[in-house]
Design a protein that fits this description.
Organism: Candidatus Onthenecus intestinigallinarum
CATH architecture of the domain at 13-100: Orthogonal Bundle
Helix content: 55-70%
Distance between the termini: 30 Å
Strand content: 5-15%
Protein name: Winged helix-turn-helix transcriptional regulator
Radius of gyration: 17 Å
Order of helices and strands: HHHHEEHHH
CATH superfamily of the domain at 13-100: Winged helix-like DNA-binding domain superfamily/Winged helix DNA-binding domain
Number of helices: 7
Structural class: mainly alpha
Keywords: DNA-binding, Transcription, Transcription regulation
GO molecular function: DNA binding; DNA-binding transcription factor activity
Strand order of the largest sheet: 1-2
């Protein structure tokens, strides 16, 4: 059990959520809001439906998360015809930059024990594992379809 991908994935996930929680707490954000901010930051003007589908989250959870980000001044939700469009506010843009940077900072910290060749090999191997068909999760599209 302890020498499995599942175990190491769980350990790294816990470390990453703790790290991001510490970094985002100063802005009044949590780990859960991280991906919503990043998606809207990379896809300005997206619809709530597009966001929910892309993040593969429950509609209710998505709507509560968006409502909180709007209420806290990180995001706008403006009517556009029969739908709504999501955009980041200036405060949201600052949070987006920090949220985006957290990934790179955490990687640099965690991967510092590896040589560049080892980092490249690890990335290539993880990409290969992630691209594997996962019929039970994404309809057999594999990671590349995202």
């Amino acid at each position: 059990m302890f020498d499995t991908l599942a175990y190491y994935s769980s350990v790294l996930y816990r470390h990453f959520t703790h790290y991001t929680g510490e970094k985002l707490q100063a802005l009044g954000l949590n780990y859960g809001s991280l991906f919503f901010l990043i998606y809207v930051g990379k896809h300005p003007g997206c619809t709530p439906s597009e966001l929910t589908k892309a993040l593969r989250v429950d509609w209710g959870h998505s709507q509560r998360s968006v409502a909180r980000l709007v209420e806290d001044g990180f995001m706008t939700k403006e009517r556009a015809g029969r739908t709504h469009r999501l955009n980041l506010t200036a405060k949201g843009e600052q949070a987006f930059e920090l949220s985006h940077q957290v990934f790179f900072d955490w990687d640099a910290q965690r991967l510092s024990v590896l040589t560049q060749a080892e980092r490249d090999e690890l990335s290539a191997l993880l990409r290969k594992v992630a691209a594997q068909r996962t019929d039970d999760w994404d309809g057999g599209k594999g990671c590349e379809a995202r």
